[in-house]
Amino acid sequence: MTRRKTLQIAVVPCLAVLIAVPLTLRSMAASDRRHQHFYNAGKKINNLLSTYCKAVEKAHGSGDATALLALYSGDYHSPSRGRWSFGDDESLGDVTAQRLRAVNAVDYGAGDLAGEIADYLDGIRGLEKTICKIDLIEEIEPGASARLTVKVIFDGTDDRERAFQDRFFYRWHLVGDTEAPGWRIQRDQLVEGIRVAGDRLSIEEIDAVASGIDFVHRRDPKLDMKRHGDQLKFAVIQHASGGVSAADYDQDGRPDLLFLDGQRCRLYRNQGPGEDGDWSFRDVTAEVGLDGVGEAHVGLFADFDNDGDRDLFIGRYLAAHRYFKNEPGPDGTPVFREAAAEVGLDGVTPATSATLLDFDRDGFVDLYLGVNGNAFEALPRLPFYATNGQPNRLYRNDGGERFVDVTEDSGTGDTGWTLAVAAGDYDSDGWPDLAVANDFGRKALYRNQGDGTFAEVAKEAGVLDFSGGMGLAFGDFDDDGRVDLYTSNINSNQRWFGEDMTVSQYIRNVSRSRWALVDAMEYASLYRLIGTDWVELGQQIGEGNSLFRNSGDGTFEELKDSHTERTGWGWSVAFFDFDNDTDLDIYAANGWISNTPGTDL
Question: How far is residue 283's CA from residue 492's CA, in Å, rounded to a whole number?
């Protein structure tokens, strides 16, 4: 080959690269600008919703809906919209529900709208709280037009003096406007709506302090941002400690309460009702041998040694776990003896949760420990698929005398940033299985194969459920004999941001950084789970809680129309029969940024 020929072969690829790189960068810059326009348009829609809520409050307080009607465009027209009004009361035990429905598919104009709004506000005696948020942007041309679903939540008192909450979902068609807030409603449609009302007498609040419970939660000192903020890489974990466990530790027929704390856990003995009929509790922390235990995230009572009384395991964050045997004291009353090192449960991990199961069916309760990441050493690497946490641990109870770490052999060492774990026999084969909720990631489902090992089958079972996983629970809510699954996640006002344009922007940003190489294996693993469906992933991670019905064939069906997903920034969840009608109900705790400022956490 001649020297000229060799030179030509070398020059052509170089020229191609020199041409391609500027073109690629130019294209990416143009895409960046389009995404910025999209983001700014979304912010203005949020401003519209904030203004809408304030206008509703003003219209109710003053009787003048002018400011509210001004948010609709001058050419407002909704073909076949119909008038929105409440249906008849539907009894739901101690509360009633009224469905908002569209009556008569007639066209609606601005004049019709004014009358409808006036009638709605006339039915409200007092308006206590309003929330207006984007649900999902379906189409948008920044500054020109948009179609989206929105949710509005109103709390107050109706004209029958009942406390109510209205939850409405609308589809708005918007047009751009030069005046603030930058958008006007040109057309609207009712997606769904409901009012739930009651007399607030179903549950009676008991004065905890008067009953003897004076517990006040305090954070783990080593996770205090004011003192150690410069050492913490993942400061959010400071909010994770705490919780409460109920168990009859002294076998007197009354459930006692253990409050977990960052500095000092407290055990309150249930003394039952006094002569006045009021129940009381007494702090017995010190006298039963539990004083001085802090840094706690997990507290589980169980008869680990099969001697007929409840022992106690306390999982702690980056501190040695504690295990207490329940034994009779000098006067015969139960006390707890520390025995963590003796039984092999004194390990140190960033534990956040735990569940009990007899995975090998030997008659002794085993322990599965949910483990987060080390907040002093790491951050969740991928915001939607973080797998750089520390592995969860499975401990086999060896005859009530010793616990053996079988994590590696069993295949249950999930390395997500775990916040919750649960056990249940989802496939009805007689062997208890495990479910894991990971923050910044996916759920995991470990099928017990009956030989001491587990297989991770979340994808095959249909419960990957990507989100900021906070909690989960097994329960047979439809009473068909099969265990269903409920998970708690983040329901975010920024879910609208999980659009194709934002996902594409994220990919561009990653491709221009070193993380494209550092996290290459994680992205490859994620691809094996979801393929190229990034937009669905982007929308799913802020969608909220998920209810999965067991299909009976090893898979689950997500019930997106069950009205169980929009519970705010989900935390812990539980199935229980609230009204004693033999059907399982759901309690879903939420917190953090979903709450009113000043009451967060």
Answer: 40
Residue 222, helix vs strand vs coil: helix
204: left (phi over 0), alpha (psi -120 to 50) or beta: beta
Phi, psi (degrees; rounded to nearest 5) at 257: -125, 130
Q: What's the CA angle centered on 572, arms 566 and 574, to 5 degrees?
A: 90
CA distances from 232 to 216, 225, 261, 377 (A): 24, 8, 20, 8
Instruction: Look up residue 517 and give its two tokens.
Output: 């190489």
Q: CB under 8 Å to 9, separation ≥6 — which residues? A: none
* One-letter amino acid for residue 436 of the chain: V
Q: SS3 for 537? A: helix
The 10 Å CB-count burial string (b at 16+, else e) for 564-585 is: bbbbbbbbbbebeeeeeeeebe
- Other beta carbons within 10 angstroms of residue 527's beta carbon come to 11
In eight-state DSSP terms, residue 392 is: P
Confidence of residue 230 (pLDDT cuts 50, 70, 90): confident
Structure-token pair, residue 412: 């249950």
Condensed to tens digits (0 to 9), the pLDDT of residues 465-497 reads: 998 899 999 999 999 999 999 999 987 665 555
Question: What amino acid occupies position 483?
Answer: V
